[in-house]
Amino acid sequence: MSRSPSLPDRPRLDLDPEMSDAERLDAMQKHFARIMQVNEELDERLEEADDRMEGLQEEVDQLKRRNDTLKKASLYLASVEEVTDDGVVIKQHGNNQEVLTEVSPQLETKLEAGDRVAINDSFAVQRILDDETDARAQAMEVDESPEVTYDDIGGIDEQIREVKEAVEDPLSSPELFEEVGVDPPSGVLLYGPPGTGKTMLAKAVANQTDATFIKMAGSELVQKFIGEGARLVRDLFSLAAEREPAVIFIDEIDAVASKRTDSKTSGDAEVQRTMMQLLNEMDGFEERGDVRIIAATNRFDMLDEAILRPGRFDRLIEVPKPNEEGRRRILEIHTSRMNVADDVDLDEFADELDGFSGADIASLTTEAGMFAIRDDRTEVKMDDFEAAREKLAEAEEDDIVGEFTDYQY
Ligand SMILES: Nc1ncnc2c1ncn2[C@@H]1O[C@H](COP(=O)(O)OP(=O)(O)OP(=O)(O)O)[C@@H](O)[C@H]1O
């Protein structure tokens, strides 16, 4: 690591009492010039240090993420086969290895054959897990008939059109694709900043096609135990096949499909296995009938290219933050059921919301309503909207409101 050079010396002003006024003035001017120069040098250094800090912060974040994965994924999943006087017979999931292992007296009294447990590298039982259906319920959200419609989504008409074409048409008129002789896109990847309507889009398309909406969060997949991520992916696809027509929505796909890291830790290997399972499922996708798959990410830059190959997520749709017209439409949507005063000018207000996402605008309108309620009014005025905007902008500065953070994508 290179060490930064030492700081410039502090300039000194030496004034000799013998000096004439002109000489003094000259010395002071030179001193001033030197101070300015040192100041400039220090500014430069500060800038360099800031850059370096940013780089280091990124490294720290990466290490933290890796550490989290490691901590979370270093346990394996097993089932209890039998509780005997000599210990407990467990069967590790994935490799089906059976082992007789000792357990702590506290756990032993609670264990029963059939329990799901988490074990460590040496097969020691660490804890008893909720039953399997709980694990699934936690990782998956199933909605038979989501209520979101395209009309509820503002500012991304072009993206709606693309999603209709890539997801809705193959579900509602598969014969069209057959007649023309083209395969519909396998998977659609929506990418863009948080809170821009990606989940809404997936729900709306499921609604429009009367399909079951099945959501899985990528982050839920990697917080589980070794072997469980891959199994949940398998479950996800078989559940979709049972419930077809269905729309599978994998949120935060970057959690399981990031560019490969160099490390060969067990956590990384687990994420890798989960991704391989996902790719496998997608590769065998054609026979799956009326199931469409949509994934979303805020971190497009982190994705492993393997998932973007033809036959996988081969239709990319960027979902950006709304422009002024989009913001106005979103404001309109979110205020449609509000009792808004005559002085509220949404056109003018939309102009002030540069950088706001759809989710930010949704919280802003709720917040404006709260201001009216606090003031014992039933009508929401322009001042309430302004106050809400200021409150959210302050929260952004304090970094309280996550949605405001501009992720790189
Ligand atoms: N384009 C939009 N039009 C109307 N409302 C929106 C829009 N985008 C976001 N919202 C509001 O924000 C909420 C969150 O949006 P959504 O979950 O679809 O965002 P997302 O892009 O999936 O975010 P994330 O990447 O954080 O998962 C929505 O329930 C809705 O209230």
Automatic annotation (TrEMBL):
AAA+ ATPase domain segment(s): 184-323
Cited PROSITE patterns: AAA
Main function: ATPase which is responsible for recognizing, binding, unfolding and translocation of substrate proteins into the archaeal 20S proteasome core particle. Is essential for opening the gate of the 20S proteasome via an interaction with its C-terminus, thereby allowing substrate entry and access to the site of proteolysis. Thus, the C-termini of the proteasomal ATPase function like a 'key in a lock' to induce gate opening and therefore regulate proteolysis.
SMART domains linked: AAA
Subcellular locations according to the entry: Cytoplasm
Taxonomic lineage of the native organism: Archaea, Methanobacteriati, Methanobacteriota, Stenosarchaea group, Halobacteria
Pfam family, one: Prot_ATP_ID_OB_C
GO biological process: proteasomal protein catabolic process; protein unfolding
SUPFAM superfamilies cross-referenced by the UniProt entry: P-loop containing nucleoside triphosphate hydrolases
HAMAP family: PAN (MF_00553)
Record's protein name: Proteasome-activating nucleotidase
Coiled coil region boundaries: 32-73
Family: Belongs to the AAA ATPase family.
Keywords: ATP-binding, Chaperone, Coiled coil, Cytoplasm, Nucleotide-binding, Proteasome
Subunit structure: Homohexamer. The hexameric complex has a two-ring architecture resembling a top hat that caps the 20S proteasome core at one or both ends. Upon ATP-binding, the C-terminus of PAN interacts with the alpha-rings of the proteasome core by binding to the intersubunit pockets.
Annotated organism of origin: Haloprofundus marisrubri
Matches recorded under InterPro entries: 26S_Proteasome_ATPase, AAA+_ATPase, AAA_lid_3, ATPase_AAA_core, ATPase_AAA_CS, NA-bd_OB-fold, Nucleotidase_PAN, P-loop_NTPase
